Amino acid sequence: MASKSTTISDIAKRLNVSTSTVSRALNGSKLVAEEVRKRVVQEAKKMGYAPNPIAVALKTGKTKTIGMIVPLINRNYFVEAIAGVESVIYDAGYDLIIASSGNFYERERKIVESLAQGKVVGVIAAVAAETTDYSHYRNLIDKGVPIVMFDRLMPLDGMSSVVQDDFQGAYNATRHLLEQGCRKIFHYRGLQNVSMWNAREKGYRQAMADAGITVQKGWVHTALTTPEEGERYARKLLAKGDIPDGILFSGDFAAKAAMEVFTENGVRIPEDVAIVGFVNEPWDKYLTPPLSSIEQFPYDIGKEAARLMLRAIEGGKPRKIVLDTELIIRQSSKKLK
Amino acid sequence: MASKSTTISDIAKRLNVSTSTVSRALNGSKLVAEEVRKRVVQEAKKMGYAPNPIAVALKTGKTKTIGMIVPLINRNYFVEAIAGVESVIYDAGYDLIIASSGNFYERERKIVESLAQGKVVGVIAAVAAETTDYSHYRNLIDKGVPIVMFDRLMPLDGMSSVVQDDFQGAYNATRHLLEQGCRKIFHYRGLQNVSMWNAREKGYRQAMADAGITVQKGWVHTALTTPEEGERYARKLLAKGDIPDGILFSGDFAAKAAMEVFTENGVRIPEDVAIVGFVNEPWDKYLTPPLSSIEQFPYDIGKEAARLMLRAIEGGKPRKIVLDTELIIRQSSKKLK
DNA sequence: TTGAAAGCGCTACCAC
DNA sequence: GTGGTAGCGCTTTCAA
Question: Which top CATH class is B1-51?
Answer without folding.
Answer: mainly alpha
